[in-house]
Write a structure and sequence with these properties.
With 438 residues, this protein is of the alpha/beta class. The chain folds into two domains: 281 residues, Aminopeptidase (3-Layer(aba) Sandwich); 129 residues, Roll (Aminopeptidase i, Domain 2), CATH 2.30.250. Helix content is 25%, strand content 26%. The strands form five sheets. Strands 1-2-3-14-4-15-19-17-18 form a nine-stranded mixed sheet, with helices on both faces. Strands 10-8-7-11 form a four-stranded antiparallel sheet. Strand 2 and strand 3 form a beta hairpin. It is globular, with a radius of gyration of 22 Å. This is M18 family aminopeptidase.
Length: 438
């Protein structure tokens, strides 16, 4: 996002900026840093959780980072102790593989790295890709640094000559078959040395002079080094890692930066970590992060418990997470009548068992937002025989008691190392988010 760049008004500029964001955000920690950098450039003030916060005033803009999560806010004019919030909730993590402790080992003359499955990835989609490591490391004195390597790893599939049945049923052992190779021969190969060489400086960081022997802890993931790209016969498809759920996170960020909040309201982006694991962490949606930020903002407005409750009663959360487009090769996996398709707009996500938090009030709100933004929309509901996933929506509604509606862009290949969306849907979600804040 450059100075003066207006992303909500232009689809192509938005997609280009989103692609840059994906490249900048190979891990949740990088995503949080990339969000913070863009907010800082736009005049948002960074807040330290351990420091005192100043009173919230009309027009104030701020954010706070907790590990791989960010909560940011923008106060409209005429804010008071009973001002409602408009929260767009997303998540920064994606399924994949996490580096294990003591990662270096050798097998049959190959240097390898030990990894553990994170969440529910399509494991076969990670085979035979050029992979890097990205995340954060912490030194013995408690300083943290972002780390990122180039393409240094690969999870090699067994050749068809050695597994003649691979095309009729590939079976992967989650321990034995997914450990990446780093080099032929074991001499001098150390994952921690690779990470130390790929460290980045910054506030509170261990800096670029990091040594492998300094590293006391690592939160590091594999990532696909192939950059996002517009593809398809009309160049209207977007192939990319981590569309679930950077597609929503960037939409919320662009909307927060470019939309002036409605007077008397507070616009917020809550980008949580660990959604793919169930969100039960200090930086996840089931944790206290958002509630604590809201309490501190309310305190900055001098709100009593009564006034805070009144504010919550008028508030909304737009829970944005990617969903499923109808798959042309597996149409039976979808509801026979509700058939969302890529290119026909972001979706309202519904589930009778409250795996999504949408209800009739939420459906009406979403319809108004899309109409105001000039964005087409469609519905998603699961086939009754296919289990439905969930989002941060029900968790946020349960924790805060705020009305919540679940939405998102339709994807093919969700949880693959490389997912697929339509550029119109990606931009449409951002425009609807802008209408939500304004």
């Amino acid at each position: 996002m450059g100075a003066g760049e207006r992303l909500l008004a232009g689809r192509d500029a938005y997609i280009e900026a989103f692609a840059r964001f994906v490249v900048d955000a190979p891990s949740s920690y990088h995503a949080a840093a990339a969000i913070a950098a863009r907010l800082g450039e736009a005049g948002f003030s960074a807040h330290d959780e351990a420091a005192a916060w100043f009173p919230l005033r009309a027009g104030a803009r701020g954010f706070v980072v907790r590990d791989g999560a960010v909560v940011a806010w923008r106060a409209g004019e005429e804010v008071t102790a009973t001002s409602p919030v408009r929260i767009m909730g997303t998540h920064t993590d994606s399924p994949g593989f996490v580096l294990k402790p003591r990662p270096d080992f050798t097998a049959e003359g190959w240097a390898q790295a030990g990894v553990e499955v994170y969440g529910g990835p399509l494991i076969n989609s990670w085979l035979d890709r050029d992979l890097g490591f990205a995340g954060r490391v912490v030194t013995r004195d408690g300083a943290a640094a972002l780390v990122r390597t180039g393409a240094v790893a690969r999870i090699p599939q067994l050749a068809i000559h050695l597994d003649r049945e691979a095309n009729s049923g590939l079976t992967l052992d989650r321990q034995r078959h997914v450990q990446p190779v780093l080099a032929a021969g074991a001499d001098g190969v150390s994952v921690l040395e690779l990470l130390a060489a790929g460290s980045a400086g910054g506030a509170g960081s261990a800096g670029s002079g990091l040594r492998a022997s300094d590293i006391a802890g690592a939160d590091v993931r594999l990532f696909d080094t192939q950059p996002p790209e517009r593809i398809g016969a009309r160049s209207d498809l977007f192939a990319s890692p981590r569309l679930d759920n950077l597609s929503s996170t960037f939409a919320g960020l662009a909307a927060l930066l470019e939309s002036e909040p409605e007077p008397g309201t507070i616009a917020m982006l809550a980008a949580f970590d660990h959604e793919e694991l169930g969100s039960e962490t200090r930086s996840g949606a089931s944790g206290p992060f958002l509630a604590e930020v809201l309490e501190r903002l309310r305190a900055g407005l001098g709100a009593t418990a009564e006034e805070a409750a009144r504010a919550n009663a008028g508030s909304w959360c737009l829970s944005a997470d990617a969903g499923h487009s109808v798959h042309p090769n597996y149409p039976e996996k979808h509801d026979p009548r509700v058939r969302p398709l890529a290119g026909r707009g972001p979706m309202l996500k519904l589930n009778a068992n409250q795996r999504y938090a949408s209800d009739a009030h939420g459906a009406a709100l979403w319809a108004r937002l899309c109409e105001r933004a000039g964005v087409p929309t469609q519905e998603f509901v699961s086939n009754n025989t296919v289990p439905c996933g969930s989002t941060i929506g029900p968790l946020t509604a349960t924790r805060l008691g705020i009305r919540t509606v679940d939405v998102g862009v339709p994807l093919l290949s969700m949880h693959s190392a490389r997912e697929l969306a339509h550029v119109d849907d990606l931009h449409g979600l951002a425009r609807a988010a802008g209408a939500f804040f304004a």
